[in-house]
Amino acid sequence: MTRPIVDDERAARLILAANVGDPARIGAQVERDGAVAVLDRLRRQPGPFQAPLRAANIEQVQADADRCAARIVVVGDRQWPSQLNDLGRAAPLALWVIGAGDLRLLALRSIAVVGARAATAYGLSVAEMFAAGLVQAGWTVVSGGAYGIDGSAHRGTLIAGGTTVCVLAGGVDVAYPRGHQALLARIADEGLLISQSPPGTAPQRHRFLTRNHMIAALTRATVVVEAALRSGTTATANAAFALNRPVLAVPGPIHSAASAGCHVLVRERGAMLATRVEDVLELVSPMGLGPEPVGAPTLPLDELPPTQARVLDAFPTRRAVDLETLCAQVGLGAGQVLSALGGLQARDLVISHPQGWQLRH
User: Fold this and answer.
1) Which residues fall within 8 angstroms of residue 294, CB to CB, at 6 or more apart?
2) Cα–Cα–Cα angle for 197, 201, 207, nearest 5°?
3) Mind listing the pLDDT tens digit of every residue in the chain (361 residues)?
4) Domains, the chain, ranges and CATH?
5) What gap in Å lies between CA 72 and CA 74, rounded to an integer?
6) CA distances from 269 to 234, 240, 242, 296 (A)
7) Which end of the chain, N or C, is less surrounded by CB atoms within 10 Å?
């Protein structure tokens, strides 16, 4: 039975998004003629979409979303991230979203942290470190929920108390990979799960590619932590290049296959080298590094008064030092050293210790 004619652009988009799949198949038509006209045409035109679109209705689309506590966002809605429009005819027709956060606002200050599934211990630790640093600077971390680097980026964000967005290749109610079921549930509680596929959709090969493109378009920059020479991660980086988004790559050991793709991105594609979180922030923050990380010194070290800088330089890295030793190393009297220590303590750079003084790490 053919459903009644749909005359609402938003409803037509939802029905098309829930039944057509890859938006690139009809994106040019929707861009040219509008969703209402395309839906009407496909319902009358023999082809693979005719039967499902004739049977489809907006009530069922909404009921499927309600069943998994998802909301649906389309172009024109308040939460639609307008940067996705840069994908042109490949832009999603709709997004299914689980989580309490505002997608548009979170995406405005977001960085993608992506990488290899078969990650090394080095890569996993770097991904967590970068994610935590971005959180401290007030950024949202976006990734794809996969094993390896993606999972570490999400975990590092959550551990640091930040917000992470997971872009899925299947429906928002489909836990994939299964081993990340608990992680995805936590992201749904504390961040956002999003997908351009309707609930119940199983991940398929082509959907991972469209997911990667969406990650690149959604974020201000893409950080690649580890990547093989040919991988989905390099596809995300290539999509970011095509969209004129900054791409940064973390270097690894020269003999590591897991870092070979990163080295090629730097050498041949013009990716920026990223060895610290500040490298990312310098690219995306209009006024430099943006907010200071929580707990950081209030002044750069090179702005310390000369005596304080001299005393600070004399501290051993990992152990405490007594006043007498400090005086001998810097060649100053006890009164001057104590005065400098008071200033350093006020700036939270050193702490008192039973054996004297120690650097605050």
Assistant:
1) 136
2) 60
3) 445 566 788 998 999 988 887 777 788 888 888 888 888 888 988 888 888 888 888 999 999 999 999 999 999 899 999 999 999 888 999 999 999 999 999 999 999 999 999 999 999 999 999 999 999 999 999 999 999 999 999 999 999 999 999 999 999 999 999 999 999 999 999 999 999 999 999 988 888 999 999 999 999 999 999 998 888 788 899 999 999 999 999 999 999 999 999 999 999 999 999 999 999 998 887 534 444 444 444 445 556 787 887 888 778 766 788 888 888 877 788 878 887 888 788 777 888 877 788 887 5
4) 9-98 (no CATH), 103-284 (3.40.50.450), 301-359 (1.10.10.10)
5) 7
6) 11, 11, 11, 34
7) N
pTM equals: 0.76
* Residue 42, both tokens: 């496909």
222 secondary structure, DSSP code:
E
- Residue 142 bridge partners (DSSP): 112, 165
Return all residues near 316 (Cβ < 8 A) that are at least 6 apart.
359
Using the structure block, give the residue that is written with the tokens 């050293």: 337
